[in-house]
Design goal:
Rossmann fold, 23% strand, EC 3.1.1.29, single chain, alpha/beta, 201 residues, RNA-binding, hydrolase
Length: 201
């Protein structure tokens, strides 16, 4: 993947992109290293050192990149998780992109830490960020890159777990790398081939 330097005007920089790739999470240092923010971390792995800049009128920071010559927008939501749709839907509409051209990197309790699975559409399984996306987009047909964070230990409330400390384990690092690669493959080779590659890992 070749990252392009964003222009001084992020609005102009995103003109003509063909995909939105967004990492979900909660903004601010308090939440940076929490299980709920693995989508942010995968987005950061995908963008490398390219700076994220504000996009006027939309609660995101963004940069432009090229994946196999396809122009894409790499986004971090700057809303809290349960309002993630407010970061995606207005931008998708402004850029003329259907939900099928939106790739969402997000945490998944029902997968072991480090496991990555891809799918398009389907239920949100209680994930408030995905619920917001589906509501604001008016569709469930976006692509999900599901990043396993495992279930909390018995007796630990889910909210305390997903907003607690994220351990920097080898499994986590592998999952972040595979999630970034999954997004590249979806854009460059299509969802089916991306699933075939990533689901073997």
């Amino acid at each position: 993947m070749h990252l392009l330097h964003p222009s001084a005007t992020p609005e102009a920089d995103l003109h003509g992109v063909q995909w939105l790739i967004i990492g979900l999470g909660n903004p601010g240092a308090r939440y940076e290293r929490t299980p709920h923010n693995v989508g942010y971390l995968a987005l950061d792995a995908l963008r490398g050192g390219a700076p994220l800049l504000p996009y006027p009128g939309v609660p995101v920071t963004a940069c432009r990149a090229s994946i196999d010559t396809v122009p894409v927008a790499l986004l971090r939501s700057t809303t809290y998780m349960n309002e993630s749709g407010q970061a995606v839907a207005p931008l998708a509409q402004a850029l003329g992109l259907p939900p099928e051209r939106v790739v969402v990197l997000h945490d998944e309790l029902d997968l072991p830490t480090g496991t990555v699975r891809l799918r398009q559409g389907g239920a949100e399984n209680g994930h408030n960020g995905l619920k917001s996306l589906s509501a604001e987009l008016g569709s469930r047909d976006y692509v999900r890159v599901r990043m396993g964070i495992s279930r909390p230990p018995k007796g630990t409330p889910v909210v305390d777990y997903v907003l607690g400390n994220l351990e920097n384990t080898p499994e986590l690092r592998t999952g972040i790398e595979n999630a970034a690669e999954a997004a590249r493959l979806v854009v460059g080779q299509g969802l089916a081939r991306a699933q075939n590659e990533i689901h073997r890992r």
